[in-house]
Amino acid sequence: TIKAAVFASGAGSNFEAIMEANDLKCKISLLVCDKPGALVIDKAARYGIPTLVFNPKEYGSKSEYEEMIHRHLQHYGISWIFLAGYMRLIGDTLLNEYESKILNIHPSLLPFFPGKDAIGQAYDAGARETGVSIHYVDAGMDTGPVIAQESVMIEENDTKEKLKERIQKVEHQLYPTVINQVLSNKVR
Ligand code: GAR
Q1: What are the site positions for Raises pKa of active site His (predicted)?
Q2: What is the ipTM of this complex?
Q3: Which atom of ligand 1 is nearest to the CA of 164?
């Protein structure tokens, strides 16, 4: 079986959606979290998933903590990484070790609204349409080749909260689907 790690920093709703997916074509063997106290850590505990929590501030450089992470990934035999609300750029260490094996989900139609609070960015800009993107990760912020996108309309009387709910519903369905497509080589 293919073993994968999820990297997350926050609430972990996408982590949960991946865990709950039927016939996922890999085993989620590790959660990596850079935010001690994040809700996603409790979620992983409930699923009995080993969890690596680290505080980036305790390391001299990104390559130092990525080398530490890499040792754990090797220990668990991880061959794929799925970023699910991991709010940190991936550095050379992991990009080199996991070339074309790192996916990210982002709540906008990239290249529009990269970075933090993409839902709020689209809403505040008065966009009529936004959505969800899943892409291969490179050194940039929410850049890298897009694999799949699904659009979500912003309604006349929308609120950020309602929009976020609809976007996350799309995320939770799209991420496991795309993971399975990528793992079964159905993506160019
Ligand atoms: C998700 O909406 C994800 O797309 C976004 O963070 C949220 C995490 O929610 N990621 C980014 O903005 C990446 N730039 P979750 O912790 O409930 O899965």
Answers
A1: 142
A2: 0.99
A3: 2
